[in-house]
Every structure is written in C-alpha cells, then in structure tokens.
Design brief:
The protein folds into two domains: about 220 residues, 2,3-Dihydroxybiphenyl 1,2-Dioxygenase, domain 1 (Roll), CATH 3.10.180.10; about 150 residues, 2,3-Dihydroxybiphenyl 1,2-Dioxygenase, domain 1, CATH 3.10.180.10. About 15% of the residues lie in helices and about 30% in strands. It contains seven helices and 21 strands.
C-alpha cells in the first residue's frame, strides 16, 4: 500500500496527488500486419536492435488457429542500453490467440510505457488503480526485459504500462539468458523484493550460463561518418517520444492522462476549430499529444489505427536532414504535416511505416522551466516545410534536455 497522507501520498518524501510520478516514456510498441516489412523498416532502416523475442504460438488452443499467419514471434528492440525501447508484435497472430477479446480495434499500439521512480511506486499504483476503479489488464513482470509493471488502459482502449527496473544491455550486446528466471511473475510483488544483483547470484549458483542471451549488436556494414563514428546509417536514434494519439472520447482520455496518470497540460492548440492537447511528464514541452479523431481523415492517416505519431529523436538537425534523404532513397514515404500541430518541436517529418503508422523524426524539443511556462508562440521559429534551411541559429535550449548516454554504435 502507498503511504496515504491527509491530502496526498508520500512518494519518496514528497507529497503528491497520486502514489507515483511518471518520469519519462520508457518504451512503445506497434502491432503489425506485415511483420517482414515492418522488421525491415524498424530494424534495418531505423536501426533498432533486436534484444529478445516472444513466441505467441504456444498460446494457441488449436494449432490450426495460426495456419497461414506467418511468423508467430514478437520482437523486443533497443537503441540504447534499455533492454527495449520499441516492441513489434504480429497483429494477426495476437488476434488469433486473443480468446478473451482484450484487443481493441484501432489500438494498434501494443503498449505505451511510462517509467516511474521505484518498485514501490509500481506496487502503489497497482493498489491505487484498484481502489479508484481503474481497470488493470495485468500486473507483474516482463520476461523478457525484467521490468516490473502494471497495465491500465485509457478510455479508448489503449494499453498503458507503468514500470520500474528494465534490464540494461552492456558493451557485449547480450540480454539476460532466457532461463534466468524459474517462474513467471503474474502479480504485483510483495515488498521489499530482492535486488537484481541477488537474482544474478541465484542464477549463477543454479548453473545458468550468463553469456547465452541474444546478441543485439548491429551487424550492418558501417559506411557513414556520423559525428566522427562509422555507423550503418547516416543518423542515430537518441530518444523516443512524444506519443501522439487520436482520441474518440477526448474529455475522458484527457482526464485519464492528467487526473489518473498525472500528466501536466503544457499547451492547447486550436487547429481548424478543434483543440489539440499537449501534456508533459518532465521538462520537455510534451511527452504526449492528444488530437481529435476527426483530424485523422483530414491528415490522410490510416483509419486502422488511433496512433497519430510515434516520435523518434535524432541527435541533431544535420542527422535529421540526412535521415530524411536516406530513408526517402530507400523507398520510405516521407510526409510533412502542419507545424502548428507540433508546438515546441520545430522541424519534423513523418516516415510512414508499412502498416501506415506515422513515425515522427525530429531533433529538438522545447524545454519547460521552473515556472511551467512554455515559449510564447510568437517567439518560436517559423517553420516552412518547403524550405528547410541548411543550418539553424541556436536557441536558448538547443541541445538541452535528456541526453543519450554511451557510444552510438
């Protein structure tokens, strides 16, 4: 149970309105109807590296349920040291084994995953959601990935995840062995729980070979000079998010993300007479953007998904331009949307994946200071999508915000 105070909760010695605090977007995932093409897009072109797989085949009650559906595996991928930042699952396979009908039409994102500050916060969130009537799909621990989690869904049926303690991938690129743990973790943990160091000692004592995990080091030919490092593509992913969603029940969705999950409204933009809401969990202008469902058709995005955009941050403006040119040369459809829909982000472009999901490429996010105010709209760059400059003048928060840690490749 969370420590309940008279008018809030004690979260690490700080009084908050809920028993947890979301710090950042940890990972995100899509379901795909064309796994081969999607793997090529996210792994080979964008550069996510596969750390582990999860086979949905054994979940079938009858093997004939999966006939003709292709690869039954899902793929966990990273760009840095977190075990996974992006997850790709086979939509048709998951649909075939969804015997309890938990998948919601349009919710093609298999998870929107937010990091909280401690295992105690995960457990407290699980208990609090139950107390206030928020449906939790499941709680426990990811294997693979090792992160403890709880899964609440938003009013439009999209699965969110709050987590702590994701596995870290080191210099040798190896994930944990698949037989690291002797059990599945299908419920919230009793606290306090043992440390990961103790888990490693137990596994070693049991004879688990610690060098048998998946090797996720990039195997592509390194031919591009990217900031002085030879890489297989002319850019490097250095961050993920924001997430953009189309909302059917805008007021209900807005209440869920602000009142239940604790996101802070930064800015509301009126575009063609409709409000678009930009919410943050840290110092970035927004980590989450909510758009009216009616804008989906206006923007020409697939009606298969309620995803508006999944953000992928590149290291700098030069890499952003290089990425757009290289991806276009590789046959990727690139689109530019009105910049008014992305306040605080300056230059962005959409790379459309094989399922029609928009992946937002960008390199800058406005930072919010202690007083919580964003930069006035008339103080921002004027973006002309038909004429991107060769270089940009610096702003007061150029290269600010969360930094990528470690080598690029």
């Amino acid at each position: 149970m969370a420590t309940q105070l008279g008018d809030g909760f004690d979260v690490g010695g700080v009084r908050l309105d809920r028993p947890f605090k979301i710090r950042r977007l940890g990972h995100f995932g899509f379901n795909s109807r064309n796994m081969n093409a999607a793997m090529h897009f996210y792994r080979d072109l964008l550069g996510f590296q596969v750390t582990d797989t999860l086979d949905f085949g054994p979940r079938a009650k009858d093997p004939t349920d999966l006939e003709g559906l292709g690869d039954t595996k899902g793929y966990f991928m990273r760009y840095g040291t977190d075990h996974h930042a992006f997850v790709l699952f086979p939509h048709d396979v998951r649909k075939a084994v969804d015997y309890n009908t938990t998948m919601v039409d349009g919710a093609t994102m298999n998870q929107i995953t937010w990091q909280v500050g401690s295992l105690r916060e995960v457990r407290a969130a699980n208990d609090w959601f139950s107390e206030i009537g928020i449906k939790v799909d499941r709680s426990g621990r990811d294997i693979p990935g090792s992160n403890w989690h709880v899964y609440p869904a938003d009013p439009d049926g999209r699965r969110n995840e709050l987590f702590y303690g994701i596995e870290q991938i080191g210099w040798n690129g190896l994930s944990k062995p698949k037989n690291m743990y002797e059990q599945k973790f299908m419920q919230a943990p009793e606290l306090p729980y043992m440390s990961e160091a103790e888990e490693v000692r137990i596994a070693r004592a049991a004879g688990v070979e610690m060098d048998t995990g998946t090797n996720s080091l990039d195997q592509g030919a390194a031919e591009f000079d990217v900031g002085g490092v030879l890489l297989p593509r002319p850019f490097k992913i250095t961050g993920i998010g924001p997430v953009g969603l189309f909302a059917e029940d805008m007021q209900g969705v807005l209440r869920f993300y602000t009142e239940t999950l604790g996101f802070v409204p930064t800015e509301t933009v009126d575009w063609n007479g409709q409000d678009c809401h930009f919410l943050r969990c840290g110092a970035e202008h927004h980590s989450l953007a909510l758009y009216p469902m009616s804008l989906r058709a206006d923007l020409g995005l697939t009606d298969w998904s309620t995803n508006m955009a999944f953000g992928i941050r590149l290291n700098d403006y030069a890499q952003l331009k290089n990425a757009i040119a290289w991806l276009r040369k590789k046959g990727v459809k690139i689109r530019y949307f009105p910049p008014e829909l992305f306040p605080g982000m300056d230059y962005t472009a959409m790379a459309i994946d094989p399922d029609g999901h928009a992946v937002q490429l960008y390199c800058y996010m406005e930072q919010i200071g202690w007083d919580g105010r964003s930069r006035p709209a008339d103080k921002r760059r004027v973006i002309d999508n038909d004429n991107w400059p060769e270089t940009l003048d610096a702003t007061t928060d150029s290269f600010a915000g969360e930094q990528f840690m470690g080598p690029w490749g």
